[in-house]
Amino acid sequence: MKILVLVKQVPDTATKIRVNAGDTVIQTDGVKWVINPYDEFAIEECLRLRERFGGEVVVLTLGPKRVEEAIRQALAMGADRAIHLDSDRELDSQAAARVLARACQDEGFDLIMTGKQAVDDDQAQVGPLVAVELGLPQVTVVLTLEVDPEARRIRAERELEGASEWVSLPMPAVITAQRGLNEPRYPTLPNIMKAKKKEVKVIAVESLGVPLDPWVRVEAFSLPPERPAGKILTGDPVEVAQELARLLHEEAKVI
Amino acid sequence: MAQGILVVVNQEEGRVRRVAYELLSLAQSLASGQVTALTFGPDAENTRESLGRYGADRVVFLSGPAYQAYSSDGFAQAVAAVVSTIDPQALFFPATAWGRDLAPRVAGLIGAGLASDCTEVHVRDDGRLGAVRPMYAGKVYARVAIDSPRQIFSLRPNIQTVVETGRSAEVVAVDPGLDASTFQAVVTEVKQSQGGQVELTEADIIVSGGRGIKAPENFKVLEELADALGAALGSSRPVADEGWVPHSYHIGQTGKVVSPTVYFAVGISGAIQHLAGISGSKYIVAINSDPDAPIFKAANYGIVGDLFQVVPALAQAIREVKKDA
Ligand SMILES: Cc1cc2nc3c(=O)[nH]c(=O)nc-3n(C[C@H](O)[C@H](O)[C@H](O)COP(=O)(O)OP(=O)(O)OC[C@H]3O[C@@H](n4cnc5c(N)ncnc54)[C@H](O)[C@@H]3O)c2cc1C
């Protein structure tokens, strides 16, 4: 099976997000960059499919030079080779999807996976948009994946509110991964060494001839309002519990 | 010229989720032109009265044989056909599992920009719509513009107020002429996973437990409080990772992002990834034995104490307050 995994590099989730007044991008100095956590589930699932059915796993990443680190990590987890779409521009979801689709359309992948969303812009669009660009079906927010390469069919369980649903679809297809799908592996030292020798093809995004102007644009950022200093109660558990119930009832008027 | 807003919602057994009314109320307050609701499935017609009551001027029901089971590619084609018939200026989807699957598919198909999971949509000075949406799970909010001629927004549940306008919606017949045999990804089975638990993203009150709970069987203590409050149950990530509760309980940057009226954080330290998921809560109540736990900095109310003593007392005190009210 020939499998593609779309990987984005994002600020570590422990990052405190800083913005300057009037800026339309966040401050990135001092930010620690990591693979988008949901993309790690996607990488892991692709590796497991390859281990079971054979074939290769290709990593496709869009971003500036710094994303090389994410690519090396995905290769160290076990992916076979990578394509780096190099660009310093901030692309919106649709431009990103067009670029990603263009870069992989001639390779003939049986399966394309990515995370259910990137934890930076939280748009959750690139998976479905790539599927549309390539004319493929999709299943998003997947908890369980069953692939039958002989029949070229997939069954996937996706998460709903308080429920889940099973979706049946043909291959090739685009699948987006949710936490719970698997437990991603850590790169081992030998694999980290091997990863250094794996092929990374760099393609300048501008050379793809795809329109890059955004449709969705950030005009301004704001930080969530600070909460006023809270009322913190200490003392006898029963007394403080009664006082809290009174405050919630009389002051906040929420119970 | 394109006009009005198309509100795309799902229904089950003739009922829509509350978020459908939130979308219609908002659309009605913004639209220059008509608000049209679109819904799918065998009992779609039964939603006509309620969709009208909350702001739909018109309704389109796709209830034919092609729409018995959800298909992201099939339904996206159907939405595209409705869009070309009624020519709306904007589309609204709920930012639910259903809407977040369908909206980007539609956006790709009709070539329109989409802003996901918005907490606000407003009319800009140029007369077009703009939105505010959280990024980094709510660590920052972005005001966004959509420059494509048609605009698509998906809206987070539990943010907009619902307004009854008492319209009676006119039915518009649209036939996309689609055959289900051409649909590729099709739902074959739906499994209910939590017995009647209110969905966290729609819950008004949430009681959430962290590692301070110490063992899975102790979650009962929280269930008692949730019961007294009529609340849904949630958790920090480690508690879900340990398997003490289902994954669907996990709240935070890599779990559910919630916006209840009151969020009770019990035995939760208040890590940045957890706080990101709860910043949309109107009130945060912290119960923790460590007075220096970061959760107290985010809390409107807090109790420093042992949860095993405080929580049962609180459940009792809340029952009494409710009884007297
Ligand atoms: C990539 C990444 C993503 C993450 N995403 C998330 C996420 O989405 N959501 C999330 O929640 N976490 C997330 N985390 C984990 C996060 O960093 C914290 O580790 C986690 O939130 C801590 O969970 P906790 O508060 O339950 O446990 P702890 O930090 O261990 O806190 C337990 C608290 O219980 C209190 N306590 C102990 N005993 C009692 C008692 N008897 N009575 C009262 N209080 C008591 C303690 O004082 C302490 O404050 C993520 C981490 C990473 C690296």
UniProtKB/TrEMBL annotation, chain A:
- Short name of any one Pfam family annotated for the protein: ETF
Q: Which GO terms describe its molecular function?
A: electron transfer activity
- Which GO BP terms apply? carboxylic acid catabolic process
Q: Where is the Electron transfer flavoprotein alpha/beta-subunit N-terminal domain?
A: 23-212
Which controlled-vocabulary keywords does the entry list?
A: Electron transport, Transport
**SMART domains per the record?**
ETF
Q: InterPro entries per the record?
A: ETF_a/b_N, ETF_b, ETF_beta_N, Rossmann-like_a/b/a_fold
The question of whether DNA damage is a record keyword is answered with no
- Name its co-factor(s): AMP
What family is it from? Belongs to the ETF beta-subunit/FixA family.
UniProt subunit comment: Heterodimer of an alpha and a beta subunit.
Function of the molecule? The electron transfer flavoprotein serves as a specific electron acceptor for other dehydrogenases. It transfers the electrons to the main respiratory chain via ETF-ubiquinone oxidoreductase (ETF dehydrogenase).
Q: What is this protein called?
A: Electron transfer flavoprotein subunit beta
Taxonomic lineage of the native organism: Bacteria, Bacillati, Bacillota, Clostridia, Eubacteriales
UniProtKB/TrEMBL annotation, chain B:
* Cofactor binding summary note: Binds 1 FAD per dimer.
Q: Which domain of life is it from?
A: Bacteria
Q: Which InterPro entries match?
A: DHS-like_NAD/FAD-binding_dom (IPR029035), ETF_a/b_N (IPR014730), ETF_a/FixB (IPR001308), ETF_alpha_N (IPR033947), ETF_asu_C (IPR014731), Rossmann-like_a/b/a_fold (IPR014729)
Identify the residues that the record assigns to the Electron transfer flavoprotein alpha/beta-subunit N-terminal domain, covering every copy: 5-189
Query: For binding FAD, which residues are annotated in this chain's numbering?
Result: 211, 236-237, 267-274, 288
Q: List the CDD domains.
A: ETF_alpha
The UniProt keyword set, sorted, is: FAD, Flavoprotein
Tell me one GO biological process term: fatty acid beta-oxidation using acyl-CoA dehydrogenase
Q: Which GO terms describe its molecular function?
A: electron transfer activity; flavin adenine dinucleotide binding
So which cofactors does this thing need? FAD
List, alphabetically, the Pfam families matched: ETF, ETF_alpha
Can you tell me which family this protein belongs to? Belongs to the ETF alpha-subunit/FixB family.
Protein name per its UniProtKB record = Electron transfer flavoprotein subunit alpha/FixB family protein
Organism listed in the record: Sulfobacillus acidophilus
Q: What is the lineage of its organism?
A: Bacteria, Bacillati, Bacillota, Clostridia, Eubacteriales
